[in-house]
Specification:
With 189 residues, the chain is α+β, with helices and mostly antiparallel strands. It folds into two domains: 42 residues, GTP cyclohydrolase I, N-terminal domain (GTP Cyclohydrolase I, Chain A, domain 1, Orthogonal Bundle), CATH 1.10.286.10; 129 residues, GTP Cyclohydrolase I, domain 2. The protein has seven helices and seven strands, in the order ααββββαβαβαβαα. It has a five-stranded mixed beta sheet, with helices on both faces. A two-stranded antiparallel ribbon has the order 1-4. β2 and β3 form a beta hairpin. The chain is elongated, with a radius of gyration of 20 Å. Its EC number is 3.5.4.16.
């Protein structure tokens, strides 16, 4: 993690603990700043990565019907409160000229974009735009559903509430029948 200042994070965590009235020298908290700094370096590793890198290798296959990868688990950190949100992403695209990506690359794209201080809406559009740019498909449809700890643990305090965002590009934006078709496949168990 090239640009992560672990010592600065440790100092900040120690200051937060002191500010809420904790004894940072008690046994259970002595190594907490170090653990949190390592966790943040991992959780925000997407800041050091470009999701387009996963699409540098593509395959050419005689396939121009939709490709759908459902239930891609992810977790991220709300940039407003720095608490987690987690859920599933569903990605569909229709290849053009047989240009397809390895299926795991779609999941890696989601993971990279999610590993930043983030908004769910931005993850959804960034994933869709990255796939449109790199694969140049006929269309992309991305749906993300997630539970936000900022709604569960504080404020509204509504555990189980899910937020759903979607982005349609290309044919999925223009053709309601195609969009409805992919939505029905996403909803299948």
């Amino acid at each position: 993690m090239t640009n992560v200042d672990l010592k600065k994070i440790e100092q900040a965590v120690k200051m937060i603990l002191e500010a809420v009235g904790e004894d940072v020298n008690r046994e259970g908290l002595q190594d907490t700043p170090k653990r949190v700094s390592k966790m943040y370096a991992e959780m925000f590793s997407g800041l050091q990565q470009d999701p387009r890198e996963y699409f540098s290798t593509v395959f050419h296959e005689d396939h121009e019907e939709f490709v759908l990868v459902k239930d891609i688990s992810f977790h991220s950190m709300c940039e407003h409160h720095l608490v987690p949100f987690y859920g599933k992403a569903h990605i569909a695209y229709i290849p053009k000229d047989g240009k397809v990506a390895g299926l795991s690359k779609l999941g890696r794209c989601v993971e990279t974009v999610a590993r930043r201080p983030q908004l769910q809406e931005r993850i959804t559009s960034t994933v869709a735009d990255t796939i449109m740019e790199m694969l140049e498909p006929k269309g992309v449809y991305v749906v993300i559903e997630a539970e936000h700890m900022c709604m569960t643990m504080r404020g509204l305090k509504k555990p189980g509430a899910k937020t759903v965002t979607s982005v349609a590009r290309g044919v999925y934006e223009e053709d309601n029948v195609k969009r409805q078709e992919i939505i029905s496949f996403i909803q299948m168990s």
